[in-house]
Design a protein that fits this description.
This protein is of the alpha+beta class and 111 residues long. The protein is 35% helix and 33% strand. It is built from three helices and four strands, in the order βαββααβ. It has a four-stranded antiparallel β-sheet with strand order 2-3-1-4. A hairpin with a 3-residue loop joins strand 2 and strand 3 (59-66).
Length: 111
């Protein structure tokens, strides 16, 4: 499944958290519920700018955009997010990589 909505971010600089994952086949419904809950919670966090996500049967890429490294750290340490991370490691992910990058330039088709 692919979400076609693109995040509307401000002019750079800002930060991107790139989460690439390979899913297990376990508990797809629980995963979907947690994903929806974390998406809703992230949107309420100070410094959150937007998110884009794409997933096929097993592999997914989610990029969340943040105003600062401090906002990313606060999100990482949020208790509900830590529970989701732990459950993901234990149940939903066969493998994953998380990368944090500073966005210095951005281009778009829309003006």
């Amino acid at each position: 499944m692919t979400d076609t909505a693109l995040a509307r971010t401000p002019e750079p600089p800002y930060w991107a958290v790139i989460f690439t994952s390979v899913r297990t086949t376990e508990d797809a419904e629980g995963y979907a519920r947690m994903s929806e809950a974390m998406n809703a919670l992230a949107r309420k966090q100070p410094g959150f700018l937007g998110v884009e996500s794409a997933r096929d049967e097993s592999t997914g890429i989610t990029v969340s955009y943040w105003a600062s490294e401090e906002a990313i750290r606060a999100w990482k340490h949020l208790v509900a997010h830590q529970i989701a991370q732990r459950t993901g490691r234990d149940r939903w992910y066969a493998d994953y990589v998380l990368r944090v990058a500073k966005v210095e330039r951005a281009y778009t088709l829309s003006t």
